[in-house]
Amino acid sequence: MTRLLLVLLCLALLALALLGMRWGWRNRLRSQSSLPAVPPVPAALGAPLAGPAIGLYVGTTFATSWQDRVVHGGLGLRSDATATLHPEGVLIDRVGAEPVFVPVASITGARLAPGLAGKVVGDGGLLVLRWRLGGAELDTGLRADDRTVYPRWVRAIDALIDETVRSES
Asked: Considering the entire predicted model, what is its pTM?
């Protein structure tokens, strides 16, 4: 009888923990409802400038806090992904989730980082793209299977940003 009560108590605690996580996710989603819609993937994209980089889409956070995950528009779903840089922006095609498209006009920079959204992999382990969604500045992280592609990606993104700024001037 004691064993049955302990098992039921453990199951109740597990159910309570799962409900708490669901409640927290819903509250986070509600607090981010003022963000505009995530940009859709354009019907036609130019030839890739960099990539494909195959790896893990780590997630998106607010730029002010590397652990403050953005769940709005499905951006909080971590999954395997393939990223490509196009003249129109960065396309992150996620497995089991909607693709993430960041238009070039929204990109403010790229860098290497040791961690993002609770995923810590060490110095230079993540490629992080900084961009704007409405008035919010966001960081989106990718952990590529081949880290040697990171410098090429950062240079290509910086060159694309410079070219976009020059053409707007």
From this structure: 0.80
